[in-house]
């Protein structure tokens, strides 16, 4: 067990390994209490570095023997390592035998049991919990794996690559032998032994090769795998079409497991998934779940090239695979929809997520560059910065070289690096080299600062119109975010801009000395601290539409007032900025009321603008729902130096109630006219209508409860009982909870009774209660009671997240209590979790990242809770790193 003495690992200390492991033959005798592992490796000395002992990683293992070239050798243990000093000269074989105990593995890292089967999770450093190894991503080997287990209990035996042999053994046992022809790092190893069934599909790729796709689940879940399989087929087709990247194995498997720390894992040819991202039927999964499955299936599949064929040299390069693969899965989801509007909706949702999670991370104690410089526990760096900001960095590259140029860059990247373990620099270099004339190539050294400097840059824009010369001069200035560190240098910031006349006309965007063009949108590149751009042939004072499509992960301040924002909301041809204008109008009002500078009554200009959006015949329902949803409490808090979560909650709830009342007739119209009829289809058009109808229902319930009218809550209750799909059923239950309707209680009981045997739906049941708007401590009381509910278990990560995560992270007003009881609850749960699953505990600990921003009495109480956790004598290094940084 790692303890608080775990050392800091630094990027600058990277050194190549003194040995390579070229092949690995693993034999497992699977037993929940004592699994035996035989590990035969061929080892080569790395002659490029000085000779030294072989130091193999190992954690919670029992070693039974070590043979080098068939002879026993002496060895010693150091914390976390098996050290062998006297090895044969030259290359040799090494055989290690050890045991491990899967049923006691509550960390869910390494080999563990779940639902009566065996599963593995080796990223980032789980392989060392299975056997002794050079458990680092630059050591790539070819694996042959033999699994032996009871045939009755574990009829299905899977590992990476291709099945080469299987058969029966004595004593009711059987075996399967798998061979993966592609050299891979140990973190991509996987095995599964369980009683499972598969949905299968054969596909022929463009190049004519045949492949078998399988989605393995528990018996009884097969009817929930159609969408995952469709998503997998679509992913294979898309990667070949867009990037010419084919499926390279005869067989590609997805396996679903109910106990999993993360979303899913891209093990070569054997992806292991959290059930949440596999199982769906219209009755059990929402539209959001369906889209989540599509994107995670895509993400893991796309890793086959970006991560597996080309992997990371060291864990500091994690974004090499994660940022790039997030970008690819986002592009995939966008390419899956037909309309430009649906693409924009996806972009808005992605940016909303980035701002809600990554921006706060980048401003707080866990701020780190996309390519971090140091860590104690690498598992703590699977962050929104590495993933989502990393994805934005790749997106900016595509913006700077164009879509075709980016595809060319990808081709060069694979020509250069297929089969290698490389760095973020190698990737950026390949994209730039394939586009020698591009803005990326011109600015590459500066562009790479996105990998090196933390913090969200601030961009300030000021425009001046000159009527006599019909010119508009835009001044752009950048400043690094406060966490960028001393000496931060300017970023290379692509800013897509348009100019709009007061009547909504798109104006030309020609710069001085350019050949005239009819374009109404263009790219500016800000690569210095400050720059001016002069637009010509501008007939009227324009409203600038900057950072279209959110072309860079920055905070923009453009000084636009209400009138100008209304022009953008009503007329911008860029849907992202149209949505943004609406959010900014709302945000300005919330912030003014929170500060006490304005009453929390909404003005008619804002209400009318929202009504126009809701009633617009041109806009899609999905887009309307995004505009009409007020900025979240967390996003509001991020705009403030001192945060009073209760005040933010009160203001936002009051404004929601006003929008509910002022637009009552419009919500009724939306509810009545936009219902989706016919069979459930998880497509963006239907999903958008369901989202807007559900928003309308929740607004109508809020307004009705305030007026003492029972009709709308009655309708919502009816819908909980008889909705034909989970999106509508959950929407109706949410409307009752969100309006504090008396019918919420019987509706919850009904919901539970209907889905008592569906764990993923019971997760929703917990999380909806935990994230319901707080009033008089009712939600907190319910959460404490739910801890003792027979369905609750801290050991199952999905369930723990659905109650504790949903409350502590998703319910600011419930959690931040003036008596500090929310923080005490958090501390107790983190300590309980830490003793069984340190990765999960460390994630829950992140809730307190922004405690220093809190106003009193919250701040002092939060600090006390953090100190209590930090003082715990047996705290894991994972959680210690998080609370240590928070207390900083
Ligand atoms: N590479 C996976 C995510 C993942 C990372 C770590 C894990 O265990 C600590 C598990 C999964 C992905 O990006 O999907
Ligand atoms: Zn990933």
TrEMBL record:
- What GO molecular function annotation could you give as one example from this UniProt entry? alanyl aminopeptidase activity
Q: Which UniProt keywords apply?
A: Aminopeptidase, Hydrolase, Metal-binding, Metalloprotease, Protease, Zinc
Q: Where is the Aminopeptidase N-like N-terminal domain?
A: 89-188
Cofactor(s) listed:
Zn(2+)
The enzyme's first-digit EC class, named in words, is: hydrolase
Tell me its EC number(s), please: 3.4.11.2
Which InterPro entries does this one have? Aminopeptidase_N-like_N, Aminopeptidase_N-like_N_sf, PepN_Ig-like_sf, Peptidase_M1, Peptidase_M1_dom, Peptidase_M1_pepN, Peptidase_M1_pepN_C, Peptidase_M1_pepN_C_sf
Domain (Peptidase M1 alanyl aminopeptidase Ig-like fold): give its ranges.
455-557
> Which reactions appear under catalytic activity for this entry?
Release of an N-terminal amino acid, Xaa-|-Yaa- from a peptide, amide or arylamide. Xaa is preferably Ala, but may be most amino acids including Pro (slow action). When a terminal hydrophobic residue is followed by a prolyl residue, the two may be released as an intact Xaa-Pro dipeptide
Query: Which biological process, per GO, is one annotated for this protein?
Result: proteolysis
Locate the Peptidase M1 alanyl aminopeptidase C-terminal domain: which residues?
562-887
Q: Where is the Peptidase M1 membrane alanine aminopeptidase domain?
A: 228-436
Q: What Pfam families does the annotation carry?
A: DUF3458, DUF3458_C, Peptidase_M1, Peptidase_M1_N
Query: Which family does this protein fall into?
Result: Belongs to the peptidase M1 family.
NCBIfam families, per the entry: pepN_proteo
Q: What is this protein called?
A: Aminopeptidase N
């Amino acid at each position: 067990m790692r303890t608080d003495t775990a050392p800091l690992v630094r990027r600058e200390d990277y050194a190549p390994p003194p040995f390579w492991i070229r092949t690995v033959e693993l034999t497992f005798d699977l037993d929940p209490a004592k699994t035996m592992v035989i590990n035969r490796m061929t080892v080569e000395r790395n002659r490029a570095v000085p000779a030294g002992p072989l130091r193999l990683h190992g954690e919670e293992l029992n070693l039974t023997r070590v043979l080098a070239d068939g002879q026993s050798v002496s060895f010693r243990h150091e914390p976390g390592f098996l050290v062998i000093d006297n090895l044969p000269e030259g290359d040799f074989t090494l055989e290690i035998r050890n045991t491990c105990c899967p049923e006691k593995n509550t960390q869910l890292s390494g080999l563990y049991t779940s639902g009566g089967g065996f599963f593995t999770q080796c990223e980032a450093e789980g392989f060392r919990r299975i056997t002794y190894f050079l458990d680092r991503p630059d050591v790539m080997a070819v694996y042959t794996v033999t699994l032996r287990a009871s045939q009755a209990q574990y009829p299905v035996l899977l590992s990476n690559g291709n099945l080469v042999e299987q058969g029966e053994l004595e004593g009711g046992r059987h075996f399967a032998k798998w061979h993966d022809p592609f050299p891979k790092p140990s973190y991509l190893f996987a095995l599964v032994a369980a009683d499972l069934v598969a949905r299968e599909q054969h596909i022929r790729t463009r190049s004519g090769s045949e492949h078998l796709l399988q989605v393995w689940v528990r018996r009884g879940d097969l009817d929930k795998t159609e969408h995952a399989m469709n998503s997998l087929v679509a992913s294979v087709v898309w990667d070949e079409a867009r990037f010419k990247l084919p499926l390279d194995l005869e067989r590609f498997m997805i396996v679903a497991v109910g106990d999993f720390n993360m979303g899913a894992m891209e093990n070569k040819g054997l992806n292991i998934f959290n059930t949440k991202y596999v199982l769906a039927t219209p009755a059990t999964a929402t539209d959001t779940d369906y889209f989540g499955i599509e994107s995670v299936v895509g993400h893991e599949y796309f890793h086959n090239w970006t991560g597996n064929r080309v992997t990371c040299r060291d864990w500091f390069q994690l974004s090499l695979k994660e940022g790039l693969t997030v970008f690819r899965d986002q592009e995939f989801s966008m390419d899956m929809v037909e309309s430009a509007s649906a693409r924009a909706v996806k972009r808005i949702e992605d940016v909303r997520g980035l701002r809600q999670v990554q921006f706060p991370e980048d401003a707080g104690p866990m701020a780190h560059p996309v390519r971090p410089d140091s860590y104690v526990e690498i598992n703590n760096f699977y962050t929104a910065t590495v993933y989502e900001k990393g994805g934005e960095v790749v997106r900016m590259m595509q913006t700077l070289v164009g879509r075709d140029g980016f595809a060319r860059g990808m081709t060069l990247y694979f020509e250069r690096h297929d089969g290698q373990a490389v760095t973020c620099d190698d990737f950026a270099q390949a994209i730039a080299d394939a586009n020698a004339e591009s803005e990326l190539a011109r600015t590459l050294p500066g562009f790479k600062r996105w990998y090196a400097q933390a913090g969200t840059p601030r961009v300030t824009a000021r425009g001046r119109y000159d009527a006599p010369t019909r010119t508009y001069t835009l001044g752009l200035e950048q400043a690094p975010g406060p966490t960028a560190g001393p000496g931060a240098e300017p970023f290379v910031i692509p800013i897509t801009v348009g100019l709009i006349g007061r009547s909504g006309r798109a104006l030309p965007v020609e710069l001085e000395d350019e050949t005239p063009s009819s374009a109404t949108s263009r790219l500016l590149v800000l690569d210095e601290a400050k720059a001016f751009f002069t637009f010509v042939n501008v007939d009227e004072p324009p409203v600038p539409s900057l950072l279209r499509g959110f072309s860079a992960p920055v905070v923009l301040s453009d000084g636009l007032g209400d009138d100008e924002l209304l022009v953008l909301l009503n007329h911008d041809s860029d849907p992202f900025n149209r949505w943004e204008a609406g959010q900014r109008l709302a945000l300005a009002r919330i912030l003014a009321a929170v500060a006490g500078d304005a009453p929390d009554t909404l003005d008619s200009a804002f209400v009318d603008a929202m009504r126009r959006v809701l009633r617009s015949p041109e806009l899609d329902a999905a887009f309307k729902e995004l505009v009409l949803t007020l900025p979240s409490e967390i996003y509001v808090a991020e705009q403030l130096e001192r945060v009073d979560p209760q005040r933010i909650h009160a203001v936002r709830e009051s404004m929601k109630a006003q929008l509910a009342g002022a637009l009552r007739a419009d919500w009724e119209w939306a509810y009545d006219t936009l219902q989706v009829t016919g069979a459930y289809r998880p497509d963006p058009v239907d999903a958008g209508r369901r989202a807007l109808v559900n928003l309308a229902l929740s607004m109508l319930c809020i307004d009705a409860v305030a007026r003492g009218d029972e009709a709308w809550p009655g309708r919502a209750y009816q819908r909980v009982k008889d909705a034909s799909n989970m999106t509508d059923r959950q929407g109706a239950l949410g409307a009752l909870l969100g309006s504090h309707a008396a019918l919420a209680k019987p509706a919850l009981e009904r919901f539970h009774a209907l889905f008592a045997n569906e764990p993923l739906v019971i997760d929703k049941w917990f999380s909806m209660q935990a994230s319901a708007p707080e009033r008089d401590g009712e939600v907190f009381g319910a959460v404490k009671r739910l801890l003792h509910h027979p369905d609750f278990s801290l050991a199952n990560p999905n369930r723990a997240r659905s109650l504790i995560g949903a409350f502590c992270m998703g319910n600011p007003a419930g959690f931040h209590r003036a008596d500090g009881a929310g923080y005490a609850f958090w501390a107790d749960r983190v300590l309980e979790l830490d003793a069984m699953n340190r990765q999960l505990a460390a994630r829950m600990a992140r809730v307190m990242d922004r405690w220093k921003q809190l106003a009193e009495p919250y701040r002092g109480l939060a600090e006390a809770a953090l100190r209590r956790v930090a003082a715990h004598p047996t705290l894991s290094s994972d959680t210690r790193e998080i609370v240590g940084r928070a207390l900083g």
